[in-house]
Amino acid sequence: MKKILVIGAGGQIGSDLIPILRKKYGNDNVISAGYENDLPSYIKDNGPHTYIDVRNKKQIEQVICQYNINTIFNLASILSALAEKKLLLSYEVNFTGLINVLEASKENNVKQVILVSSIAAFGSYTPNELTPNDTIQNPNTIYGISKVFTELLGNYYAEKKGLDVRGIRLPGVISWKREPTAGTTDYAVDIFYKAILEKEYTCFLNENTRLPMIYMPDAINALINLLNADISYLKHKVDFNINSMSFTPKEIANLIKQRIPEFNIYYEIDPLRQSIADSWPNSLDDTVARKEWNWNPKYNINDMIDDMLFNLNIKLNKK
Length: 319
Ligand code: SER
Prior knowledge:
Helices cover 44% and strands 16% of the residues. The protein has helices spanning 12-25, 41-44, 57-67, 80-85, 87-107, 142-160, 187-197, 216-228, 249-259, 271-278, 287-293, 301-315, and strands at 4-7, 30-34, 49-51, 71-74, 112-118, 164-170, 172-174, 200-203, 211-215, 240-241, 245-247, 264-267.
């Protein structure tokens, strides 16, 4: 029986992952842990919840013991653009926080730890079309460096410390439950809010910046499928490319305009986020994930846009 702790529960991925984990494993078997007050009520009210600051190892250990946790998802992370502005906070959350989770898990008999890496783990020397799974990684952002650290340290604990650690490199994740935050790929979420509410969007990336993206249901499936994958097939552990769709701001804007004809996009480039995006791949080769644990995404860009507009319209009371 799994007893799952999700750290970073109030963030973009946690908000979508927890309801699905609760459906699958039972409400009482999935403990959500957010930072201070950022847990949405549909998470707080439907199962056990607690507060964890990932910088505090004792807090993590207390919760592991209190709920007999055997599985942890660590989703706590300062995203790319904010990390460049808040270096010390990023060191504490993305580096020390990770060490705390891995050490607390090892010392308290947690069986499985799921970590999240990113396309940000690549850099300017990495081949940027169909980036191979195993290739040069030279990120030049603190967030990206923390993701390489996540992969390497996770692999180390898997190989040397007997902990079952697994993880994927997520593309930009598109979803409607939580508002966009400090990610570079978050333009592709914000554009939907603005298209519905204001019929125009000013994009901080240039129109031809192509980035790999994934729709949340596929990202959640990836995490849960990897969680349950037969370990004997996993040659890799925390460093799986997964690929789904790739597009530019101009392309997604045109497809939204086909559905909302009044919609217009404008551009005002933010040099920081543009330089971050320019250092990331256009698309990823995910053959390894397909082979080792049958990764197979379901949503293409048009399915994603239709589903986003449908759900966001309901959420924003526009229908
Ligand atoms: N979505 C993240 C960001 O843009 C990338 O992993 O920061």
